[in-house]
Amino acid sequence: MDYMIGVDIGTTSVKTVLYDTDGKMQGYSNNLYPLYQDVPDMAEEDPEEIFSAIIDGLTTVIRKADLKNGTLHGVSFSAAMHSLILLDENHKPLTRAITWADNRAVQYADELRENGVGKQLYEKTGTPIHPMTPLSKLIWLRNEQPDLFKQARWFVGIKEYVIYKLFGVLQEDYSIANATGLFNIFKMDWDDQALQVAGITRDQLPKLVDTTDQISGMKADYAGVIGMDPNTPFIMGASDGPLANLGVDAINPGVVAVTIGTSGAVRVVTDKPKIDPKGRVFCYYLSEGRWVVGGPVNNGGIVFRWVRDQLFAPEKITAEQMKVDSYDLLTEIASKIPAGSDGLIFHPFLGGERAPIWDANARGSFFGLTRTHSRAHMVRAALEGIVYNLYTVMLALEEVVGKPSSIQATGGFARSALWRQMLADIFEQDVTIPESPEGTALGAATLGMYALGLIDDLAEVKNFIGVANVHHPNPDTFEAYRTLVPIYIRLSRQLQSEYKNIAEFQRKHPQQTTDQK
């Protein structure tokens, strides 16, 4: 048997998946690490903890491979976008990895949007202006921590740091670079204006390479621990969003991938870069002739978790005692409420928001509450609100690339029949759930197989996945959702004028944690 490994470096864990060259999973490891949130708006991770998780994951799946009677052809990487690590001249970290979820650069992102420079940069980089980006983070660090900023010799992301640790080479793939806000998607190079705005030079950044670039010659110590031939080729791979599209076979024109995990996204592949005149969607590189246009949202399954923990704590305990999944119990409760939650609307902006409003100050709200509404209404409204928000991203996407021909949906939400049906009803389109539980890792492995010549075209991913479910929209829900979605959108616009004010109040009056109370 011949093998390929896909490594998905995520926000909360590294998933390492061993595939055979028919795309069948032969081994799996999920290694967790903490997200550090010591102060408001912080979201950091320890690079060494992530690196250890990668070594552990590779070690675990290699043990499941029969390398005496087969060959490990290579390892290919996916990584979360927008991370930033400052390194000294010896390539030692001066900071933890500042993740996409870190909002401390909000002031500087706002300034870029207000002074018009942000629009100029977006039109060249395809990356919306937001505190998530390394561009905004660099401006924030330069102004708020100038001594630390001056100490830095290199500015990298987590994948680049891992590659350097393994191979002693500092390089960055086009896809990850594309998401920094510093990369010109039309010149395929670092953008001079963006570098000037950030206050850095191109010799402080890694060498740029394609997503199919190969590297070998792993340091002997690490190869020995993992149990891998040090000459095994590693493929740079891409960022997680584009690879998630690849991993669910959403790479043909008009095929949209909708993902709801902790966060969420709506994405479609095009054959060349496309920019939204209104700046609502991103454009990120996957491979030659394939670009991913779409919008990410901060608030997916994490909102469902908040509803469970804050509004349904007794039911959570009951579910644990009954040994049933607490989320299944909540969706059963929500299913008793009619579509539209009897006019209760929820804006799910519990952690600021990215697409389509790109406002880190955005805050959540229930609208339309009456005495007749119950907690059951609130849980259904929360689930609907998440999908309403994804639908507004789809509306923006349609203006840029046209109407979708089909929707492939993945993520933790795919376990819920109610949530899958909501997606079909609100989008008014068939929704297909591919049978690929780790789509991003499969995307990485597929790109790796393509880079190594094991497959001739990325489209061969269709042979690696099956179809678990197809959900058809229910016309009985159309009237409610067609009425409520426009109200949801108008409310978003009206509330946006006050998001900054309430966010500033909350920063000045930090909320006590439950333990402090």
UniProtKB/TrEMBL annotation:
Record has Protein biosynthesis as a keyword: no
Domain Carbohydrate kinase FGGY C-terminal stretches: 257-452
Domain of life: Bacteria
Carbohydrate kinase FGGY N-terminal domain: residues covered: 3-247
GO molecular function list: kinase activity
Family affiliation: Belongs to the FGGY kinase family.
NCBIfam families: gntK_FGGY
Protein name stated in the entry: Gluconate kinase
Organism, scientific name: Levilactobacillus zymae
Taxonomic path: Bacteria, Bacillati, Bacillota, Bacilli, Lactobacillales
